[in-house]
Predict the 3D structure of the following.
Amino acid sequence: MRQKLANFLTLPLKLDLNYFIKNSIWWTVGEFLVSLLSFLTLVIFGYTIPQKTYGTYQYVISIVSLVAISCLPGMRKAVVSMVAKKQESFIFPASKEVGKWSLLGISALLLISSWYFFHQNYILAVSFFIAALFFWPIRIFNLAFDFWQGKELFHFERKNYVLINLGEAVIFIPVLFLTNNLLVILLAYFLSRNLFRGIFYFYTLRHVSTLTSQFKKIFKKPLSFGKHLTFLNLLDSIANQIDKIMMWHFGGSLTTAVYSFAQMPAQKIQELIPIAPLLLPRLSKISLQNNKKKLLKVFLLLMLLIIPITVLVIKLAPFFYKVFFPKYNSALPYFQILSLGLLFVPFSLFHTALFAKMDSKSLFYISLAKNLSKILLFFALVPIYKIWGGVISILIARFIESFLVAFFFFKTNRSIFRNSSE
């Protein structure tokens, strides 16, 4: 049985069972440990930090994450794809482009800081000034993780990912016990993230050959693709952060805190399923046009696995919140409904295939439809329904995205469904 499954996944898709199981374990264990650290941090926030401070903290982080679109986040997938094709020195021009464009983000944060300063809100003014100081390095440093993913050394990448997050937690978590001062908390947060990721980044560069002039023309297309993906991520960044910002403005600190304690755990659980990071390097090497039928079978297998996982998460949620988040039990029903988003995770297989193919046009339409609908729903529902408005908006947007991903993936060969049933 195991050998038949191995043959099924290996030919012709090259998704050998040993590769997928071994790297899935590394990825899942790594994500689990990091999620455990994030979970521990969230628990400590809930017990030690006043809700008003936590709400403001989430507001600042959301603004910074929104401004980070200027740092070309789409370049990260381009690095994975190029390193998988043995073009390892692509990390140099990618880092240069990220650093250059990050100047826009720094300027934006300084403008926000100045606005709050002139309106005599000195806490937020200093908060955004601190964010501006530490803004650009981490955006470059994160490319190191993508480099090792592209080399398919997931065990090495995940080990360092866990160690880096552990180091960050060792600095950050004690601060939460020692002070409720928002400025100190933000300083510890940004400093710890830049320190350890910077060490890993410069270690990575030691394993890359120097960039020569002959590669400059070769790298123009992936650099352009990375920028194009960033443009796609413009609405995505707005859609991912505008909900917390709107919760803070329309519902206040308490609403933001409750929403965060529902949305963040649900998101972390979905991130534990490593379809995209594991398969992007492999799918970048094969002909997707000739393997759609095989991908469809893999998708159906993933769907059969994800359904019982979703039911289990929803059933265990009351116990989970009672034990770990007793002060935020009101977030439970929102978390359970958001957990239905797990059912859309298998569609990331098709989404990853479109990334590997660098199908910019399809990715643009998918991103535009999903994020535009999400943003419009947020603006329509959050001011009226607060948290429920955010929950409903997220699920509707995920459904739209999944439908369009499947549509564009099979668009060039619509007979695949008929052939797969024969």
User: Anything to note?
Assistant: Residues 2-420 form one domain.
